[in-house]
Amino acid sequence: MALSELWFLLVAVLFIGFFFLEGFDFGVGMSTRLVARSDLERRMMINTIGPFWDANEVWLLTGGGAIFAAFPHWYATMFSGYYIPFVFVLLALIGRGVAFEFRGKVDHKNWTKVWDWVVFFGSVLPPFLFGVLFSSLLRGMPIDENMNLQAGFYDYVNLYTVVGGITVTLICYLHGLLFLTLKTLGDLQERARLMAQKVILATIASLVVFVGLSIVETDLFQFNSMATIPMVIGVVVAYALAILFIAKKRDGFAFTMSGLGILLTVGSIFAGLFPRVMVSSISETYNLTVYNAASGAYSLKVMTIVALTLLPFVLGYQIWSYYVFRKRVDAKDLIY
Amino acid sequence: MSELFLARFQFGSTTIFHFLFVPMSIGLVFLVAIMETLYVVKKQEIYLKMAKFWGHLFLINFAVGVVTGIIQEFQFGMNWSEYSRFVGDVFGAPLAIEALLAFFMESTFIGLWIFGWGRLPEKIHLLCIWLVSFGTILSALWILAANSFMQEPVGFVMNNGRAEMNDFFAILQNPQLKVEFPHVVFGALATGAFFIAGVSAYKMLKKQELNIFRKSFNIAMIVGLLSGLGVAFSGHWQAQHLMESQPMKMAASEGLWEDSADPAPWTLFSILDVENQESRFNIEIPYALSYLTYEELEGSVPGMNTLQAEYEEKYGEGNYIPPVNATFWSFRIMVFSGMLMIGFSALGLWFSFRKTLVERRWFLRSMVALIAFPFIANTAGWIMTEIGRQPWTVFGLMTTSASVSPNVSVGSLLFSIITFTTIYAILAIVLVYLFVKEIKKGADYDAPQEVNVHVDPFDKEAYQ
After folding, report:
1. CA neighbours within 13 Å on the CB side: how many for A235?
2. Nearest-CA neighbor of B367 among B224, B257, B231, B232?
3. At what angle do helices A72-81 and A53-70 cross, to 10 degrees?
4. Does the keyword Heme apply (chain B) (predicted)?
5. Which residue of A195, A278, B196, B284 is surrounded by the most CB atoms within 10 Å?
């Protein structure tokens, strides 16, 4: 395997890690409006992700940094090409990040209310926009011979990308609800589970529409069908099992299945792209691939050594932090 | 308004705003770590209260620093895509390593620190805050490694019109990094120290919780004085190195059109007439510039006209003179602020030693005002460094005008500038409001932080 291919895999792993981890904290953020009934419940929910969300977000920053270092052309084309969507992603992430810190700092109803809405929109908007982004990546964007993307509104926003956005949002919402069943107790836990039962049906419906549209709109299932088709079948199996586990109140297994669903969904997007990183709708010859968008061999080698040395430590202390805060959150937890 | 102007405006404004919080975070967390260490060693409750109080302020500041940093990472691709294509190979690596090495460390251990009170053993909890502090400094190292490459490109070869890395260790041993990193880190420590000293002075003026704030003041001023001296020395090395790496920046920061006299005096004040390439009403300190650049009392410093001719020969037609006024004045503002900080921290320690600090109300009032100066110095320092490098993005390799994204419209740029500016303004107001609120609350206030949990979700019950 060439180093540039390894880096494509690493970027995929970073994005899977991002959607798996920040996926549930986005979902918890959505639940603060859709499931919580009181300020106390909102506070408990936010406390379930309190120690983790910041590090979860770093998976995205590292993913972005990895693209910059390993695939400078991908980084340049994507971020300049998706300028306005990224402005919204950044605004959402900024607001969300400070809202967690600020919401409990002033003891006034309206103060908390404002920051709670920021938490909610800051949790809905990024997964939706990432869904739009990834589905439009699959569909292809007008990338010219200089690798510059010059798109119009309907290149970003169309039926396929909107369905993609809704799907990713629902996937994260479900993941967050299942995380809450693991981290809360009593009435709150029960309501999160009931909501998960409804949301999983919506998620599956949305996924089915998305896969259907993918067959029409993209070459996802022709290009690397050997990889993507089994993965998509895996997604179906994972969510089917999740339905079963939720009903049987086996929350740990249900959460694992929804995590597996995320892994395979993001995995099949990356597998469907490979070896392309961005598809040009103008001409196949303008596609950005892991070969023509990559850094030099030396740079990739250095980065590989650094990444493979550091990754075990990073994973080690992150797992440790989840172990330290393994207990369920309770009404007396008033940190945020 | 051109795309280039707007992209530069956005980069400048978001970076300056971000860099108000970064040094403060680096400095505050270092001091909080010292306070918690004192608590663990001496077992006195007062240090715990100090660590928690300044820790609260640190966390508010840290949150804004983190979120404004997210924009920084992505705007290279958004606004400067040609630059990203050209140097991503070299410049992306330190950025990615920063995320992998420093961001993960900071964000994980800050979570453990905030939620770990009473849950982690004392020493492990202490280790967490030191790891956060270490992470912030490590973060600075990698960012400055990337910045140093822009000031003084090393460790690369040109290949297919791109700068490709060929020596990673050269990038880490960049001579520019060796002078820039200590300067920035000492500056950051001084920023945190002067904030703590200033707020403590305010509390002493109000005669509130004297014990805690006198102690805080002393710890802060020791760090403040040492790092102030560190800033001065490393700044001096940096000036000397500037003569080798970017003499044009040096000439502009002195307003020198023609080569200087030998020995060269340092210009304290001048009216710069950029159009006629003249500097009038100079107030000068004899020998000072020679000493600053060569550590000797002789030696002439080349002027902008000489260098312009040299650069034209080397790089072709063009204007290689950076905005002179901005470079000249930002340098002076930085040096003046730094001197003031060293003087006041020495004075503060002296008064404290004589136990007359609390009576000297003029001094305490000055310390409150002095909170602003490290921020002014940090900002001025970056303005000098980055504006003084113009017209280059990467010195000698790529100009700023060639770096901008060709496919981002004026409308998009205006939209992002307006939204970012609005949200930054809101953040600034909220931050100041929260700071004032927390400071008024004082250190003796203990927010309810009861942690009470029972069931383990990863136990058998969850997988039954």
Report:
1. 24
2. B224
3. 120
4. yes
5. B196
Contact B455 A299 (CB under 8 A): no
Q: How do residues B20-42 score in pLDDT, each as one tens digit?
A: 999 999 999 999 999 999 999 99
Kindly report, residue by residue over A266-306, the tens digit of the pLDDT.
Answer: 999 999 888 999 988 888 889 889 998 888 889 999 999 99
Is some CB atom of chain B closer than 8 A to the CB atom of A221? no
Q: Two tokens at B82? A: 């040609």
CA distances in angstroms from B79 to A111, B9, B459, listed in the order given: 34, 11, 49
Of the candidates A149, A302, A306, the beta carbon closest to that of B165 is on A302
* Tens-digit pLDDT profile for residues A163-210: 999 999 999 999 999 999 999 888 889 999 999 999 999 999 999 999
Interchain CB distance below 8 Å, A182 and B462 = yes
Tell me, yes or no, if A101 comes closer than 8 A to chain B by beta carbon.
yes
Cβ neighbors of B317 (< 8 A, separation 6 or more) are: none
CA atoms within 13 A on the CB side of A80: 33
Residues of chain B found within 8 Å of residue A148, distances taken between Cβ atoms: 81, 406-407
Q: Check B119 against A332: CB less than 8 A apart.
A: no
Hey, are the CB atoms on B456 and A326 less than 8 Å from each other? yes
Nearest chain A residue to B448 by CA: give it. Answer: A334
Non-local CB neighbours of A316 within 8 Å, separated by 6+ positions: none
Shortest distance between the Cα of B306 and any Cα of chain A, in A, equals: 37
| C-alpha B48: how far from chain center | 28
The structure tokens listed for B461 are 């019950």
pTM score: 0.91
